[in-house]
Amino acid sequence: MDLIFLKNKMESRHPVTRGPVTWSPLIASVIVILYVHNEKVFVLMTLRSKKLKIHPGEMSFPGGRYEKEDGDLLSTALRETKEEIGLELSDVLINATLPTVTTLTGYAITPYVAILQTRPIIGELSDEVENIFEIPLLELLSSKQRNTSGKSGESKYVYWHSTNCIWGASAKILGGIECLQFI
After folding, report:
1. Measuring CA to CA, which residue among 101, 82, 83, 100 is closest to residue 91?
2. Which residues contact 152 (CB under 8 A, 6 or more apart)?
3. For the whole prediction, is pTM greater than 0.85?
4. What's the half-sphere exposure (Cβ side, CA atoms, 13 Å) at 60?
5. Which of 41, 84, 102, 129 is the most buried (most CB within 10 A)?
């Protein structure tokens, strides 16, 4: 996968958007961090703490719930990424805004994409994050399987990283990235 090609495609098809947000406790945003390391494209994902009340022990992208002080969803994603994994990104490093996805719990999650030329330096993990994974993107996308959970409104596919199943909103986001490489 050519990262420059993907970056150009994302920027042209899904430009970065920043707009006013009508507050709701069910609005969130995340950052999909893609980068090159050892001539491979990687995606950064987190494993949420098993102690959390919402989505414990699930694979996800760094991000979280919108707060009024944020002003917009990109600011939310940047703030949450810094809080969760100690990675401070500038808004100029954000390349795309993917379509909003919804969860079975009613959250509307706006994913932003940062395509970096180098491996990011991760800081201290918050109590919300149990672990962080740097996953080769093509390997992750090739792990796709049909979701047989049968839950209405759930993602059609799941992805696997070792024994960790990536489903729900995170799987929907990965599906959107996967589609871009073939357009």
Report:
1. 82
2. none
3. yes
4. 28
5. 84
